[in-house]
Amino acid sequence: MSPLFVFLFVLSFSSLINLSKSNNFTSQNSSIIGNTIGGNKWISIASTIVSSSGNFEMGFFTPGNNSNYYIGIWYKKISKQTIIWVANRETPISIYEMDFAQFKVDNGNLVLTNGTRHIIWSTNINYTTNFNNSQVVATLYDDGNLILSNNSTNHLWTSFDHPSHTFMPGSKFGYDKRTRLKQVLTSWKNANDPSPGPFTHEVDMENKYIGQGVNMWNHSVVYWNSGPWTGNNFTGVPYQPNPMFNYTYVNNEDEVYYMYNFFNPSLISNFIMDVNGQTKQLLWMDSTNDWNVFYTDPKQVCDVYSYCGSFGICNEVNSTSTCDCLSGFKPKFEKDWKLSSFSSGCMRKTSLNCGDFGEKDRFWRYKNMRLPTNNESLRVGNEVECENGCLEDCDCVGYAYGNGNIGCLIWKREMLNLQQLAQDNVNGSTIYVRLASSEFSSNQDQKQTSTKLKIAIPIGVIAALLILSCFFIYYRKRRNSKVKEGSTKFHRQNTEGEGLELIDIQDDDIEVPFFSFESILVATDDFSEQNKLGQGGFGPVYKGIFSGGREIALKRLSSHSGQGINEFKNEVMLIARLQHRNLVRLLGYCIQSSEKILLYEYMANKSLDTFIFDRKRSAILDWRKRIEIIEGIAKGLLYLHHDSRLRIIHRDLKTSNILLDEELNPKISDFGLARVVEGKITQANTNKVVGTYGYMAPEYAIDGLFSIKSDVFSFGIVILEIISGRRNTGFFHQEEASNLLGLAWRLWTEDKSMDLVDQKLHESCNKEEAIKLINIGLLCVQEDPKDRPNTSNIIMMLGSENSNIISLPRPNQPAFMTRKCGNNNNTTSSSNAKSDGVSNNQLTVTIEMGR
């Protein structure tokens, strides 16, 4: 390794460490490149732009303890980082992709590309007239507005027209009647997450007042309206015009909007849609070095609809916290609540019992409450009938009776907009919340329970502290006695059945967190069948929901799978080090007794084979999406073979090991059979052949030789399966009993390759593009590994628009063209491959080879 390479590596690594300590300001480690981007100037992790007078700065930032990166604009001259605009609120960039991320002008648009040069955010301007795109620049002005233009007067796009959560002085807040573009302020999810939250603020276009008012929404519910504009103020806002501001209202045939400016331009102020659902006017105070709030609506946070979420109580009277959960409930997302973002609400600690067995549910009483919304009425004669009516309905979660002659009201599924009112508030009502019987102490009412708790809690705390102290001393002694071992050890039954083999995973090798088995039991509901996603040779896969609502897939190792234990060790020690958008991420692991569990990011659409081989679901994957999937798999392979810290050979690439995320982006998974080869070595051998019939390269199946070219062979099969919608194995075509490779080769030699393409794609696909992909697929499955292209060449062939059937090399005959002769069971192959011990199915197999 050259000294120059070592120097550059150390320099970049040191910069990354310094960046993580920069208190969220990218600019502290960045160079300023002026106030414009365009041409050969763009914003990267190492650069920012600053407005001409230094009022505002634009670059990459990480809010709070969030590890993701966003492109945004913030105040330059104040000490407290205050973001006024964010571009990629819904598409953050991870720290692993930041080295090559760029915010730039491309083809007349502002675009944000991630580490793999994919566009994840764009201004999406469709031009109707031609002009010189090379002259398009984006300029950050001293009012905080980012303007994309091709000259000083022709504004193509502005950030003021597309606000995030801030309404800036001098910007318009309204609606363009021609383009139907509306300015909407959307809250952050929480103080550390700028992704869109539930609260929005926008002009009311439903009521055609002389002067339109403005609304605040919690999703689809309006909880505040200003009333119409009178010319001086809004009728629903009890504030006098502020002499600091100059308000403007415009309503003509083209647009309707509001605007405000300061009479004193030296003042620093903005108007935000806050994370708590309130709008606030802020003024920067140099004396306190902080923002001063001098206007808020609604005045009380409890007036924000469902501020505390489902089953949450808002209490601004006598509570240490504005939001609390009802008894028998707990915060749904604990992390959000710690950041004072309560809209996710609460969830039950114990499920209700709706049936004829077990103890019946009971009701907990709450006095002086604001009645929740979304109630239904029951026609009953008394309160007992009201209570029984709720108990008989499995969806009923609570009731109220006789409060102000309301009769019987019930609530189904959830209670929203709960508020604890003061004792002297005449509008308070009594409600009864349904809980499992186990939430109550037998033969005790609520008052007695509360009194005993007041006595028991201090005694319990003292006892608990004593027990914890003893446990801590014991734990320290036990930990000190084991610290020298330096590894996590577990036993497995070896594959020969010769007793127990000890396997060590060194602590330094583990780069993902350990999950407790108890947390996994909670997340999967004790591995319930309802949460089971599938079954493999290694064991079952489950869906788990962890704190914060994060969905994770769990692979639970079967105690009967010797191969599965090797997979476990391999993935924990190896795959956790790999980070690429086209690889499924390993998020953690668990070892407890005989339980060995791997935790992955959850893929909502499961695997690729569930789409392309399904008659109905395959229609979802149009031609363009299939090409994107092929390209994504190729990029993942390129990373494994060439770009990652380790050179990885997957050895089991197949459509069932390609998972699809919510946007149908492909991610290579299941690295249990993967192998690492050192340095520039591209080939190795093994005495044990593992893989899947129909995807294994001939040199691997026969001689145990595996290489990056054996992965390329598998990739060629995957390409042909994606294009044709047919499996390579278990496939018979008319009388020839040929597999998919045999059919593809025959159609190629007869110049009928389009017959291989899935019939559903014929109308949408490009013929030259289809033939090019078939050509690439056949190049990948050639019998001699030396003839197959490597992954970097495949990327070039896939990405080049000029790569067609004429310019690409012509393939040689593929391997494994099995055929049946007559009605007997004899088979032949172009490579005379042995098929002993390999089953004709989609299961991963192991073949012991004598060497």
Automatic annotation (TrEMBL):
Chain ranges of the Apple domain: 354-436
InterPro entries per record: Bulb-type_lectin_dom (IPR001480), Bulb-type_lectin_dom_sf (IPR036426), Kinase-like_dom_sf (IPR011009), Pan_app (IPR003609), Prot_kinase_dom (IPR000719), S_locus_glycoprot_dom (IPR000858), Ser-Thr/Tyr_kinase_cat_dom (IPR001245), Ser/Thr_kinase_AS (IPR008271)
Chief location: membrane
Cited SUPFAM superfamilies: alpha-D-mannose-specific plant lectins, Protein kinase-like (PK-like)
Enzyme Commission number, as recorded: 2.7.11.1
Lineage top rank: taxon: Eukaryota
Gene Ontology biological-process annotations: recognition of pollen
First-tier enzyme category under EC: transferase
Keyword Kinase: yes
Subcellular localization(s) per the UniProt record: Cell membrane
Compositionally biased spans, kind Polar residues: 833-843
Chain segments carrying region Disordered: 822-843
Protein biosynthesis recorded as keyword: no
Residue span(s) of domain Bulb-type lectin: 34-161
Bias (Low complexity) ranges: 823-832
Gene Ontology molecular function: ATP binding; carbohydrate binding; protein serine kinase activity; protein serine/threonine kinase activity
Reaction(s) the record says it catalyses: L-seryl-[protein] + ATP = O-phospho-L-seryl-[protein] + ADP + H(+); L-threonyl-[protein] + ATP = O-phospho-L-threonyl-[protein] + ADP + H(+)
Domain (Protein kinase): residue spans on this chain: 527-816
Keywords per UniProt: ATP-binding, Cell membrane, Disulfide bond, Glycoprotein, Kinase, Lectin, Membrane, Nucleotide-binding, Receptor, Serine/threonine-protein kinase, Signal, Transferase, Transmembrane, Transmembrane helix
Signal peptide: 1-22
Topological relation to the membrane, as annotated: Single-pass type I membrane protein
Transmembrane feature ranges: 455-475
GO cellular component labels: plasma membrane
Family designation: Belongs to the protein kinase superfamily. Ser/Thr protein kinase family.
Protein name: Receptor-like serine/threonine-protein kinase
Species: Solanum lycopersicum
Lineage of source species: Eukaryota, Viridiplantae, Streptophyta, Embryophyta, Tracheophyta
Primary gene name: LOC101258749
